[in-house]
Amino acid sequence: MIEELKKKFTMTNAADDWTEFRGNLTSLVSHYGTLNGSKKLAIVGAGRCNDLCLVRLLDTYENIVMIDNDSEAMKEAVKDMPVNYLNRIECKEFSITGLYVEDIDRFCLDLFSFVKNAGYSLNMEMYQKHIISGLDRLDEQLIKTPDRIVHVLGGADVIVCNGVFSQLFSMLLFFISSLSVSIAESLLPDAEDAIALAEKKLSMISDKVIPIINDALFEAAKDFVIYGNEYDEKRPVEGAHQCIQDIRTRYEDVIEEHLDWNFNRKQGVMYDMLISVCNVSKTKDKLKHIKGGLNYV
User: Fold this and answer.
1) pTM (predicted TM-score)
2) Of 64, 121, 174, 202, most Cβ neighbours within 10 A?
């Protein structure tokens, strides 16, 4: 079941559609790598890395570590790399939320089996309760502290995290939405009402998890953390919106600029990506100065 879901989220034309965005984002990430002579770049949520040019980045950085919970996608990203470049890239299978493919697959199979076994006896209360209990179980598995992420990313000078926060729980919501629409057509006419409930629950989960992830990225990086989030004031994008607000509220010395992302040319999907650059080294220097002053007094 999870393999079918992954296919839905695989952009077959990404390499071509994202050419301009990839060039612009790569230039930006390279630029910030030169400011402090950064040696190591970490790409969080790297996947197939269609949004960044690894070869160009290795002209700036000595080493790159790619982080993603999909090891097959990362293998695709580096399969045609020359050996002299490949030796400078490390791929780490890791989930920044604490949830892995098998956890999402287990949730989907459980919910599908529940609906199938309930059959025509299924009612709205049963259906909603099972969705929430399943999401509660996943919630218990989520990261509670930044420590594990910091450990995996330790030693990175610059961390880039583009288009990741909007995708943290999108696969779960997609499955719940698709199943609910199907049930509404065949078993339970008001099943689609459960989609709003799932959206609310996943939004609450995002509110808890995203600040922890941001703390981890901020603590792990030595020079800069570079975020890319889908920006839409009128229709905020779940996950991306929370990340943007968290950065703006809690961190100083943040530089913002916008890049156009032609996400799906065939379907006419274009994103305004807000690039937020957090100057970690500057902020940490301030904290050291404050702590030093307090110790002196």
Assistant:
1) 0.91
2) 64
Beta bridge mates, 227:
161, 276
Cα separation, 66 vs 285, in Å, equals 27
Contact between residue 73 and residue 48 where contact means Cβ atoms under 8 Å apart:
yes
Collapse the DSSP code of 21 into the 3-class scheme (helix H, G, I; strand E, B; otherwise coil) and give the result: helix
| Region of poorest pLDDT, from 34-43, 193-202, 216-225, 284-293 | 284-293
- Arithmetic mean of pLDDT, 183-193: 92
- pLDDT value, residue 14: 83
Nearest residue to 226 via CA among 160, 156, 154 = 160
CA angle 9/171/166 to nearest 5° reads: 85
pLDDT value, residue 15: 87
Give the long-range contacts of residues 233-239, CB within 8 A, separation 24 or more: 237/166, 238/166, 238/170, 238/173, 238/199, 238/202, 238/203, 238/206, 239/165, 239/166, 239/167, 239/168, 239/169, 239/170, 239/206, 239/210
Three-state DSSP state, 44: strand
The sign of the CA dihedral 174, 21, 218, 81 is positive
Q: What is 2-296's CATH topology?
A: Rossmann fold (3.40.50)
Pick from 160, 166, 143, 138: nearest CA to 46: 160
Query: Whole-angstrom Cα distance, residue 138 to residue 209?
Result: 12
Query: Does an H or E element contain 96, and which?
Result: none
Tokens of 92: 């780490």
